[in-house]
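Morning!

As promised:
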Amino acid sequence: VAALLDRRLIFVTGKGGVGKSTVAIALGLLAARSGRRTIVAELARQERVRNSFAAGGDTFEEVEVADGLFTISIDPESAMEEYLRVKTGRIGQALGSSRLFQAFAMATPGMRELLSMGKVWELAQSARRTSGADPYDVVIVDSPAAGHGIGLLRTPRTFADIARVGPVAATAQRIAASIDDRSFTAVLAVATAEEMPVNETLWLSEALAGDGLALDAVIVNALYLERFSAADGTRLARARRGTGVSSPANAALGAALSLRARAAAQREQLNRLAEGLGAAPLQLPYLFAETFGHDELHALADALDAELGR
Amino acid sequence: MSVADLLEGRRVCICGGAGGVGKTTTSAAIALGMAARGARVAVVTIDPAQRLANALGLRELDNEPRRVDPDRLGDDFAGELWAMMLDPKRTFDELIDRVAADPQRAAEIKANRVYRELSTAVSGSQEFTAVAKLYDLARDGNFDLLVLDTPPSRNALDFLEAPGRLTSFLEGSAIRTLIRPHGLGLGVRVLGRGASPLLGALRRVTGIDLLGDLSTFFGLLGDMTDDFSARAAAVQQMLRDPTTAFLLVTSAATPAVDEAIWFRRTLQEGGLPFAGAIVNRVHHDRFGDAEPDDVAAELAAELPEALARRVAATFEDYHRLARRDHRNLARLAAEIGDGDDDRVIQVPQLDGDVHDVAGLERVRAFLFASEEERERLIAEIVA
């Protein structure tokens, strides 16, 4: 795991609502801070990275949001236009601007995913196809949730198998080979210590294994501090009975007991995950922040750094 | 306002929102509450948490609503609660069975490679089949209310957009301009003149004989594409019907509220009937102005000093979240407009997952309470 940031292509996946985008950004910050030229690629029209750094720019453009940290938002339509322009010159350009052609290509099952993967792969090449573009040391992909995410990873292989001839077959083959190469590509799952995210992570781990891939790391995000022991809990409950019902002290004890209950429930799920994976996942703390800004992102990057070095 | 008020006169309730905000639990609690009041209600869900599925007695994907055993529900339960887990592949196959002219044709379609890709693709097929199933259940008219838990997706908009993408593919509108079948035979490969260079180029670039695969597929579908169009129009009509309600489900966290606001705007632009919002996991602020030191001092009589300080620190953490939630709720209310925030129903942060009928009952109590009752329930939790 220590070598995670030495992979050129890192897919970050996980169920919605677990903080996957946040973790992807924090990982990007960490990579950039270590001197690696890094880009975080988003595959939906989310633009969370851009918003986190209040940066502008066109979406399908590589924009620097912090020192050595870039972002791009990849949509299949733009990816296709670019691909056709680079690969087939003028004919391609004409094709790409044909709405009929766009509609036709986009309607082809799997084509949207393949085009997105193609762009992600292109970003990770040491010699970029895009003219005048500098190479990146690390490309972090904020990828869709488990089911969609695995579909995405499979797409190049599927196309390589289906496509009979032509440049796409060759490209899909190359992309698929890169994904299979564990020194080039890493897959990372983010979860929270709740039932559904844990289930999905365990499912993902199995499904990837079925494809000859594996999860390189699992990160459990938003873990509460275990501030109170079981003995503390008993004490707090007793103390609460002694306070006035509508007093701040009573409310404070209520908040403490609630935190204890939630931390215990999380611990249970965390153990289930560790057992299922056969390994202890990496852990990130819940940040009790009123707003989530640079300080919080850097705090998460620090925490990730410590966990990756563990 | 309570959920019962929001759903007055509605026959279809669609719970939409980003992933991880408690959509499945909320949908189940809404169905439970409406059934408790006497209605015959079915909740349609995809992939619920195992324990919740067990609680509802849903053991398998059988793609038909099953009645939840009344013994699992309270004694004063006036109506009927039904639940089903959607099987997208099966719903898709059933749709083909229904629309195809004969079983032979249906079998050929189901064996077609394009169809197999289409019906098992994770993205799109869940959304498409969820709406298709909802439409069939609504048309059958066996239930007073249908509650749809929309498929888990990265963003709420997928639910609105994905079915359209798939439908327009099935209608073949883009493709029909390219492939112009002469006669009604299968596997027609005669092209409109303008299309052949385009398709030739596509084949050169992709290396896939899309034309062959697709023309076989659409040859098989034949007139069925008209049925798909007709159905799509009927589904759109159902979604826009005044007896349909879109309920936005969100948590009070910032990204979820951003998403909810975006979703609400899209509903509005699309002319879809928005009924209200349910905000889960709200941290309610009481005594927010109490100083942590004072709280610690007050606790010092009851607890050792170090423990009292940790309690005070926890209290402070809680209030940071309460302030965040308060701000996000204000943003949401402003979006919904008219200062009309009684269409926003808050459910406080509860300890632990909801995974049984008792847990659903607890959520239901908040959803169906009157304003005063809800205040009282929240006070019970917070103070």
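Residues 5 and 368 of chain B are 9 Å apart (CA to CA).

Hope this helps with the figure draft.
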